[in-house]
Specification:
mainly alpha
Length: about 140
Amino acid sequence: MFPTARAGTRKKTPKNTDAHPIARKLASEAAATSAAGLRAEAELILGDVDWIGGCWARAIEHLENAIAAEPEDPALAARAYPKLINYTVAHAPSEGIERAERAFAALSSQRVPAAVASVAFDSYWAGLLLGRGVRPEL
């Protein structure tokens, strides 16, 4: 079986260890590259890091940068657009609806139905937040 540590011999992990600075540093370096695919993936990671860190505006900016780096990549769009719309709706519902319209144009419900469903739900929610009522087409 596994050996057990004796009392007081186990290494203690610092309470406030934060991996975000390391993730941000590595992803920022990758985002500075000229390789569009790598840059897009790094921007996605930076978006997640900022979202988790509580900076929704920077998270949205990074997701927009990821999409701009690889605008014709359907797999990237399927990962980026649902986050982009979700992150936007809570803080700027009108902008969320505008971004959702771009997402609908970029995503295929045949290829990535879960991504389209996520965008549709958040777009519907944004409309309700704005008092626009029910949209049966969503």
